[in-house]
Amino acid sequence: MSFWSQLITSIKHLFSGKQAKFEPQEKDGVWYQETKPGIVRIGIADQAYEDLGEITFMDFSSPDNELALGDDLLEMEGAKAVETLKSPVKGTIIARNNDLLKQSDELASHPTQNNWLVDVKVA
To answer: Are 54 and 103 in contact (CB under 8 A)?
Structure first.
């Protein structure tokens, strides 16, 4: 596909209101992707729960909504290890997926993009 064709396709998707393609970046057990301008969704990467084995416990590290780069985001305990996932971005948490915490034993059966933790308005 030529550059111009890709540009036109991108512009059509931008103005059509369709969901962005799921192509996240990964860092230290989390995936993250901009879902809207200035809003980043952070989730649990497949590798994190594969490394931990069966997840037995998950909880947000802090009730605070302000995140700095590298702040503790989520405590996870599994059959093989304990892990603290860190924030890959700086900003303010605007949404938390508390339902995911109740489904820790089902993480491996969910599509990766459904294993989101927080939406962050980046600073």
So the answer is: no
**How many angstroms separate the CA atoms of 10 and 44, rounded?**
27
Mode of pairing for the β-strands spanning 39-44 and 30-36: antiparallel
Q: Taking the mean position of all CA atoms in its chain, how far away is CA 120?
A: 10
Helix residue ranges per DSSP H, the chain:
3-16, 46-52, 98-101
Give this prediction's pTM. 0.79
CA quadruple 53, 112, 65, 94: dihedral, nearest 10 = -160
**% of the chain residues with pLDDT over 70:** 85
91 sits in which H/E element = strand 91-96
Q: What is the pLDDT of residues 66-89, one digit of tens each?
A: 999 999 999 999 888 899 999 999
**Nearest alpha-carbon partner for 87 in 63, 111, 61:** 61
List the structure tokens of 74.
């989520």
Q: Which residue has the tokens 């924030």?
A: 87
The first and second tokens of residue 55, run together, are 């997840």
